Amino acid sequence: MTCKKTIGILGGMGPLATVELFKRILALTPATRDQDHLRILIDNNPQIPDRTAAILGGGESPLPMMVQSARNLERAGADFLIIPCNTAHHWLSQLEEVVSIPVIDMVSETVAEVATNKPPLQTIALLATTGTIMTSLYQQALAEKDITVLVPTREEQGELMSVIYRIKARDYEVNESLQQTTKRLLDRGAQGLITGCTELSLVLKKEETVCPLFDPLSVLAQRAVARAKGRSERR
After folding, report:
1. Which of 48, 113, 163, 205 has a CA-to-CA distance to 58 between 20 and 30 Å?
2. Which domains does the chain have, with CATH numbers?
3. 10-48 tens-digit pLDDT
4. The whole model's pTM is what?
C-alpha cells in the first residue's frame, strides 16, 4: 500500500475559502470509494484577527492564533500544512519556525505556475487584499522571474476590498464590479491575472476570463494532493 500523508488545513481565513479548498482537494483526488481519499485535518478558526488590518498597522497580529492552529494540527497528526489565505503568508517564515512539519507556500507555488505559462508572460495583474499588495509578496517573487505586476489604483482597490468582504458575507453578486476592474488592468497592459485572495477564487473562473487566470487556491489544492500521495509537486 502507498503511504499517504495527512494534510493539515490551517483554516478560518476565511471559512468559505477553507471549505472551497477542502472541496477542491476532494475533486482532485482519484477515488472510487471513501477509502481512496486523503486524510485531511482542518482547524477552522475564524477568530484569527484580520490580516490586512494587522499589516496596515491598526489591527491585532494574527500570528499567535495561527501558531496555535498550526500546533494543534501538528499534534493531531498532520504531515504538512496548507493555508488558504494569501495575506496570511506574510507570517509564513515565522510560522515555519515554530512547527516541525513543512508548510506549502501558496504564493511561491503560484509564482512557479505563472512562470511556466506558454507563451511567457511579461506583465500580470494581481487582484488581492490591500494587505497582500502592501507586503509585495507576489511583486517581489514575480520580479525574480522578470514578470511585472500591475495592481489596481487606490480607488479600484477600495472597490475590490468591498467585493472581498461582500463575498465573505456570502454575497456573490459581484461579477460586474470584478469584470470592470479586470478590464481596466488588461487595458493597462496585463496579459494574465492572479486571483490573489482566496475569496475571489469563489467567483472568478478560468472559463469566464479572456486571459490566463492563475488561481492560488487551485494551485494549493494540486500541490497538497501531490505531496500527500508522494508525487512530485510540480508538473
Report:
1. 163
2. 7-105+218-228 (3.40.50.1860), 107-216 (3.40.50.1860)
3. 999 999 999 999 999 999 999 999 999 999 999 999 999
4. 0.94
